[in-house]
UniProtKB/TrEMBL annotation:
This is NAD(P)/FAD-dependent oxidoreductase. GO terms for molecular function: oxidoreductase activity. It comes from the Bacteria. Keywords: FAD, Flavoprotein, Oxidoreductase. It comes from Streptacidiphilus alkalitolerans. Transmembrane segments: none annotated. Residues 10-330 form the FAD/NAD(P)-binding domain.
C-alpha cells in the first residue's frame, strides 16, 4: 500500500456539479489554492443527464406533437418521428459524456482537480481514493474552507427482485441510442413524466406506476388532474395508488407485479422514484451527522452546524434538488467564505418547473402546505384558455393559474400551461418580494397573453 500524499490547500470542494464548480472556480479567482474533487463528470448531473439533455428530448417530443396539431388548424402535415437526430443532439450537447472542457475551464482559473472518491476522515480532513485499482490515496487538510457539494443519486425502492435486473435510471434512458418498444416507469414525479411523455411521442408505449394517490404528489392536485387528462389522451397508461411488490425479467421483458394483483409488462423498466443523498458514503459521521439523515444541517450562510470551517451547498442540504437552488446557495456560500456579507439564504420563494407539455411551474407553498402551517389561506384558480391567446382547435392551450395568498401577499402560486415555466418568473418575484396583493391587482396585464390570467386569478381572490 502506497503511503497517501498529504496536501494542505486553502480550500477543498467535494463534488464538482453546478454548485461545487461555481464555488471552486470563484475561490480560485480570488487567488485561493483550491482542490476540486469528483469521481464522475465535472458539471454534475445537469449538463450530462439532467436539465440539458432531457430538455433536448422534451423539445423534440414537443416538435413532433406540434406537427401533429397542424391539420385542422393550419394546413396539412405528415409526421414521421425519428429518434436518431435526438441522440445526435444529446451527444453533441454532452460532448459524448466527456468533461474535458469542464475540467479545463476550472484548471485554467487556477484550481486543481482530482478524479476520485472523497470521504471525510475527520472534521477537516478528506481522503481521496483514485479511480483506478492502484490504491493511490491523497489526504487533503484544507486550511480555510471545506465545501461539500456531493449532490444526490437516483433512489431505488427496495422492491423484491428489482436489484437483480438491468433496470434503467434517467442516465440509461438519456444515453439510449435506440428506444424500446415499451417502457414501464416506476414513479410519477417530474423526471418520470418528462422523460415518459418525451419517449411516448417517439413511439415508445409508456406505462407509469405511482405509489401515491396522484401524479406530482408534491404539487397542487389541479396540476395532477391536468397532467392525468393530457397524458392519458396522448396514450400513456397511468396507474396511481399502486404498489409494486415484485419485479422480474424473463425473455427480454420486465414484469412488475402489484399488490392488488396487476401484472404489468414492458421491454424496459425506468426507475424514477426520486433522489437521495448518500451521507454514509461521504463519511458525514466525521461531522457528527447521522448517516441516515436526509441532508446536512446548515445555517442561513450554508455553514454546516457544529462543524467550523465546513460549508454545504446543493442537494446535500435538503433544500431542493434544483440546479438553480444549487447555484443560489453557491453564491451565498462564496460570499460567506470570502467574508463579503450580503443577504443570507431564503427559501420562501423556491421556484420549480416540471417540463411536461403542458409545463407545471410552481413557487412557494402549495395550498395544503400553507394550511398545514396554520395560515389564513385564500386561493383562486383561473383557466388559461380565458386569455384568448391562440384559441384554435388542438393548439395545446390546456392550463391554469392558481394563487395561494395569506396576510395580503402571495405565499405560493402554480402556472400550468404551454409556457408555465416562463409565467412563473413574475409569480416568483411577487412571492419573493412579498408584493402586496393590492399592487398586483393594480397591474395592467397585456392582452392577449397567458400572463393576463394572473390578473384574472388575482381578481378572483
Amino acid at each position: 500500500m502506497v503511503a497517501p500524499t498529504v496536501s494542505t490547500p486553502d480550500a477543498v470542494v467535494i463534488g464538482m456539479g453546478p454548485a461545487g464548480e461555481e464555488v471552486a472556480g470563484r475561490l480560485a479567482d480570488a487567488g485561493w489554492d483550491v482542490v476540486g474533487i469528483d469521481e464522475r463528470l465535472v458539471g454534475g448531473e445537469c449538463p450530462y443527464w439532467g436539465c440539458i439533455p432531457s430538455k433536448i428530448m422534451v423539445r423534440a417530443g414537443n416538435l413532433v406533437t406540434d406537427a401533429h396539431r397542424v391539420p385542422g388548424s393550419a394546413g396539412i402535415s405528415r409526421v414521421q418521428s425519428d429518434w436518431r437526430p435526438v441522440v445526435r443532439h444529446v451527444r453533441a450537447a454532452t460532448d459524448d459524456w466527456d468533461d474535458k472542457v469542464a475540467v479545463d475551464r476550472f484548471t485554467t482559473r487556477g484550481g486543481r482537480f482530482l478524479r476520485g472518491t472523497a470521504r471525510l476522515t475527520g472534521p477537516n480532513e478528506v481522503c481521496v481514493s483514485g479511480p483506478d485499482d492502484g490504491g493511490t490515496e491523497t489526504l487533503l487538510r484544507p486550511r480555510r474552507a471545506l465545501v461539500l457539494a456531493v449532490g444526490a443519486r437516483p433512489s431505488v425502492p427496495p422492491v423484491p427482485g428489482l436489484a437483480g435486473t438491468p433496470y434503467w435510471t434517467n442516465h440509461d434512458l438519456v444515453e439510449a441510442a435506440e428506444l424500446p418498444e415499451s417502457l414501464l416507469v416506476l414513479g410519477g414525479g417530474a423526471i418520470a413524466l418528462e422523460l415518459g411523455q418525451a419517449v411516448q411521442r417517439f413511439g415508445c408505449q409508456v406505462t407509469v406506476l405511482e405509489a401515491q394517490s396522484r401524479l406530482l404528489p408534491q404539487e397542487e392536485p389541479e396540476a395532477a388532474d391536468l397532467l392525468m387528462r393530457v397524458l392519458t389522451t396522448e396514450g400513456i397508461e397511468i396507474h396511481t395508488g399502486i404498489e409494486a411488490v415484485s419485479v422480474s425479467r424473463q425473455g427480454g421483458r420486465f414484469t412488475v407485479v402489484c399488490r392488488r394483483g396487476e401484472r404489468l409488462s414492458a421491454e424496459r423498466l425506468l426507475v424514477a422514484t426520486g433522489r437521495r443523498v448518500d451521507l454514509e458514503r461521504l463519511g458525514a459521521s466525521a461531522l457528527g451527522v447521522p448517516a441516515d439523515a436526509r441532508g446536512l444541517p446548515v445555517d442561513e450562510r450554508l455553514r454546516v452546524l457544529g462543524a467550523p470551517g465546513v460549508w454545504a451547498v446543493g442537494d446535500v442540504t435538503g433544500k431542493g434538488a434544483f440546479t438553480h437552488m444549487a447555484m443560489y446557495q453557491a453564491d451565498v456560500a462564496v460570499r460567506g467564505i470570502l467574508g463579503q456579507g450580503g443577504r443570507p439564504a431564503e427559501y420562501h420563494a423556491v421556484p420549480r418547473v416540471t417540463f411536461t407539455d403542458p409545463e407545471i411551474g410552481a413557487v412557494g407553498l402549495t395550498e395544503a402546505q400553507a394550511r398545514t402551517r396554520g395560515l389564513a389561506v385564500r386561493t383562486a384558480v383561473a383557466d388559461l384558455a380565458a386569455s384568448g391567446r391562440g384559441l384554435v382547435h388542438g393548439a395545446g392551450n390546456d392550463g391554469f393559474i392558481k394563487l395561494v395568498a395569506a396576510d395580503r401577499v402571495l405565499v405560493g402560486a402554480t402556472a400550468a400551461g404551454p409556457t408555465g415555466g416562463e409565467i412563473l418568473g413574475l409569480l416568483t418575484l411577487a412571492v419573493q418580494a412579498k408584493v402586496p396583493l393590492a399592487e398586483l391587482r393594480a397591474t395592467n396585464w397585456a392582452y392577449p397573453t397567458f400572463h393576463r390570467v394572473v390578473g384574472d386569478a388575482l381578481n378572483a381572490l
